[in-house]
Write a structure and sequence with these properties.
The complex is a heterodimer of chains A (320) and B (477).
Chain A (H helix, E strand, L loop, with lengths): L1 H22 L5 H10 L2 H23 L38 H40 L1 H20 L2 H12 L3 H28 L2 H9 L3 H37 L12 H8 L8 H28 L6
Chain B lengths: L3 E14 L5 E16 L4 E5 L6 H8 L7 E6 L2 E2 L5 H7 L3 E4 L13 H11 L6 H14 L16 H13 L5 E5 L7 H18 L2 E6 L2 H7 L2 E6 L2 E7 H6 L4 H8 L6 H6 L30 H5 L5 E2 L5 E2 L4 H6 L11 H4 L4 H4 L13 H10 L7 H11 L2 H11 L10 H8 L8 H7 L3 H8 L8 H17 L3
Parallel strand pairs in B: 3-8, 3-9, 6-7, 7-8
Antiparallel strand pairs in B: 1-2, 1-4, 4-5, 9-10, 10-12, 11-12
Helix pairs in contact in B: 3-4, 3-5, 4-5, 5-6, 6-17, 7-17, 15-21, 16-21, 17-18, 19-21, 20-21
Classes of the chains: A mainly alpha (320), B alpha/beta (477).
Keywords (chain A): Cell membrane, Membrane, Transmembrane, Transmembrane helix, Transport
Subcellular location (chain A): Cell membrane
Family (chain A): Belongs to the binding-protein-dependent transport system permease family.
Chain lengths: 320, 477
């Protein structure tokens, strides 16, 4: 009798358990990736760094103790004589060559840097993705004509990729003149072929998958196959690349600013411009270059960490 | 008028080369002139070894690959010439179940989305709620819990995934379902379930199946008519029972001889026809009869003239010039069919030439003795030799498939082989003929024997070596 009850209990328990697992709604791959991301130390560090940077970019101008342009301590700094004011109570990072508060300039400059990074990445991502989708869709479902189109598009992107990125950016900036928009566009253009190729390659790999064939067999329209079947499965590497290219965009924007192709208005602080200006006084006041440089490095590192963590989280081979 | 009729269907894939401009340097003749017809409510089984073009043929019917020439007439309409959009609409009536249950489901869509996608494309169901009701009914029909709707493919087991694949085809209420190796990726125990489900659905919904498989037992179980493919063309077509009872084409004979018999005594006496060499490349198929390079009964005419599929009566069609002669024994073997066929000694090719078919010694016996005698090693127990060598062919692997998939056979046939099957991976159920092809390294194995000390029975060695040779590729023998 007892054994029977025990068995009955066991069965009930089993039923309960199966009920529990079955009632939970399905976990999509995106959700699982997010869960893995939350468990990754690298992702958390990256996210924290990026979070701080974003907060700084947003609230920076309001919390900055001084105006970034006010040359309040002009009389104290004699840059031409090599006399600088370093860290001190009222100016945490010291003063620059024109007697402006470096700490305030760093805070305010974060916004410009973030803007350049995000906008240029978006330019590259959006245009690159459109080109990539076109090319990928043409190659996978377009038949012979599609493959021709794909070949043409890809040769153009190859051409763009073969130019050194900085050279390409400099040429774009040179043509369009000096401004912040120029920097963003120049840096964005450099990213276009990268995104296009990546997405196209990813779509091509997915295009041969059985579920795409199944979708065709079901009679789903080509446009829909591309948008609902191929594209969602091809996005992971692009998302990772977007994060990673934010880092390079910031660095390249800084490089362009450093080369003097950035915002011509010296009053608006931007980390790249600040770094370029600090160069002249590096012998006397190296710290003036260190602040923006370290800022750029840490931010880029943050994005890279997050990007790498995302790559791991989205990798289907690691799906547990 | 049959529901689905194929007339001289050819699918040739161009082979391209070139850096800037693609230059066609040749063709792969994946499907090379196949004609067959499937009656409504019937199951047509298509068997053949890997690479013979059976999957391509299945895809060609649905126009998932471009048809080079020929007609695919479905219900009076030639699908091969339909414009794309009309073909798309026709796809509702012709559905497909894929081999890889996971790969054929979009990993980022949940089940409801996967199943409703096709309905939306064909305007079935008025709105979401209506479709959901339909989907629920189908899910119940294929034996999936109703709460599967919001779950994703990776959360299901292999068998369940294949049920989803079947449900996906069924929601469109098709007339014909093409099953491309529907069970080969599944566990043996699950295979029977899925096959029973397919049969059940056929009965209740009046479906017509074109089943593509390499598992002879599976095909026999569910097919009414079976077509045997070799290198892009049909070599034999017959009603299921007739084909298994009396295969007429040499290739089919070889295939059938690979099917194990669930009776140890019969199994021991079973005569194996082992084929020489590999499947020729479909890019460069042999002239004349496609099979003449490996046919044990090959004649001069075979290399010159390609035989056509001719009806020998009762719907038994064979593409062989000498089917009748082989049947009544007027043509003897011209190639070895025993283990020397795969061991590949030079002599073996003409050794058996004069040997009549009828009183041929069990295939396994000859080579084993020969190998050991030639090596001048004393054969301790010739009887044991035979047993050992039979094991060499991966028969044990396919045996349980026969037992299991012929639907829930009682446990009284539960032999060792059956137990082995539980442990075998899916891979192990790979086609016989493949295993046979790959058993080539025996050449070396025999050589090794010479170094074996005399006190050890060399025959065992041969068997062992052969076993690993054959088993290494298939899984573990």
């Amino acid at each position: 009798m007892t054994t029977l009850t025990k068995r009955a209990d066991k069965i009930d328990r089993l039923a309960e358990l199966t009920q529990q697992t079955e009632s939970t709604s399905g976990a999509s791959l995106w959700r699982e990736a997010l869960r893995r991301l939350r468990n990754s130390k690298m992702a958390i560090i990256g996210a924290v760094v990026i979070g701080l940077f974003v907060v700084m970019a947003i609230v920076g101008p309001w919390v900055a103790p001084y105006s970034p342009t006010a040359q309040t301590w002009r009389g104290e700094v004699f840059a031409n004589q090599g006399k600088f004011v370093g860290m001190r109570g009222e100016n945490w990072f010291g003063l620059d060559h024109l007697g402006r508060d470096l700490f305030s300039r760093m805070l305010v400059g974060a916004r410009q840097t973030l803007l350049v990074g995000v906008v240029s990445m978006l330019i590259g991502l959006v245009i690159g993705a459109v080109v990539g989708i076109l090319s990928g869709a043409a190659a996978t479902l377009g038949g012979k004509v599609g493959q021709r189109i794909d070949t043409v598009i890809m040769r153009i992107t190859d051409l763009m990729l073969s130019l050194p990125s900085l050279l390409l950016a400099v040429s774009v900036a040179a043509v369009m003149g000096q401004s912040l928009t120029t920097v963003m566009i120049a840096v964005g253009v450099v990213q276009i072929p990268v995104f296009a190729r990546l997405l196209r390659g990813s779509m091509l790999a997915q295009g041969g998958a059985d579920y795409v064939l199944a979708a065709k067999a079901l009679g789903i329209r080509k446009k829909r196959i591309v948008l609902t079947q191929i594209l969602p499965n091809s996005l992971s590497p692009v998302i990772v690349q977007a994060t990673l290219s934010l880092a390079t965009a910031i660095i390249e924007a800084a490089a362009l600013s450093y080369l003097g192709l950035g915002n011509p208005d010296p009053a608006i602080p931007e980390w790249g411009v600040m770094l370029s200006q600090a160069q002249r006084f590096f012998d006397n006041e190296p710290m003036m270059a260190a602040y923006p440089a370290v800022g750029i490095i840490i931010t880029a590192l943050g994005f890279t960490l997050l990007g790498e963590a995302m790559r791991e989280a989205l990798d289907p081979k690691l799906r547990g | 008028m049959s529901l689905l009729e194929l007339d001289d269907v050819k699918v040739h894939f161009p082979v391209k080369k070139g850096v800037f401009f693609d230059r066609t340097v040749g063709h792969v003749y994946a499907v090379d002139g196949i004609s067959l017809s499937v009656e409504a409510g019937q199951t047509y089984g298509l068997v053949g070894e890997s690479g013979c073009g059976k999957t391509t043929l299945g895809r060609a019917v649905l126009r998932l690959v471009d048809i080079t020439s020929g007609e695919v007439v479905f219900d009076g309409t030639d699908l091969a010439k339909l414009p794309d959009e009309e073909m798309r609409q026709f796809r509702r009536r012709l559905q497909m179940v894929f081999q890889d249950p996971l790969g054929s489901l979009n990993p980022r869509q949940n089940i409801e989305s996967i199943l409703s996608e096709g309905m939306a494309a064909h305007g079935i169901g008025t709105d979401r709620a209506d479709r959901r009701e339909k989907i629920k009914a189908i899910l119940a029909r294929v034996g999936l819990p109703a709460n599967s709707l919001s779950r994703y493919p990776h959360e299901f087991s292999g068998g369940q995934r294949q049920r989803i694949g079947i449900a996906r085809a069924l929601v469109l209420e098709p007339d014909v379902i093409i099953c491309d190796e529907p069970v080969s990726a599944l566990d043996v125990s699950i295979q029977a379930q899925v096959i029973n489900l397919l049969e059940e659905l056929q009965e209740s919904l009046g479906l017509t199946y074109l089943v593509i498989a390499h598992d002879l037992a599976v095909v026999r179980h569910i097919s009414d008519v079976i077509g045997v493919m070799y290198l892009g063309s049909l070599v034999e077509e017959a009603p299921s029972d007739a084909l298994y009872a009396g295969p007429k084409h040499p290739y089919t004979r070889a295939l059938m001889s690979a099917v194990p018999v669930p009776d140890p005594e019969v199994e021991d006496r079973r005569e194996r026809i082992l084929l020489q060499g590999d499947l020729p490349s479909p890019a460069n198929p042999p002239a004349g009869c496609r099979f003449h390079t490996r046919c044990p009964w090959v004649q001069e005419k075979c290399a010159l003239e390609r035989p056509v599929l001719t009806d020998l009566g009762d719907g038994h069609k064979v593409a062989c010039h000498f089917a009748a002669e082989i049947e009544n024994g007027t043509i003897g073997l011209t190639r070895a069919t025993g283990i020397e066929a795969v061991v590949g000694t030079d002599k073996s090719a003409d050794v058996d030439a004069a040997e009549p078919v009828a009183d041929k010694v069990p295939a396994a016996k000859v080579p084993a003795q020969k190998a050991s005698v030639e090596d001048a090693v004393v054969v301790a127990k010739p009887v044991a030799v035979e047993d050992e060598v039979v094991v060499e062919t991966p028969v044990a692997v396919e045996a349980p498939v026969a037992g299991k998939s012929v639907a829930e056979k009682p446990a009284d046939v539960d032999t060792d082989a059956d137990v082995a099957a539980e442990n075998e991976s899916d891979e192990a159920a790979a086609p016989e003929e493949e295993a046979v092809d790959k058993a080539v390294p025996e050449d070396k194995a025999v050589d090794k024997d010479k170094a074996v000390p005399e006190d050890k029975p060399a025959s065992d060695e041969v068997a062992d070596a052969a076993g690993t040779g054959a088993g290494g590729k298939t899984g573990s023998a």
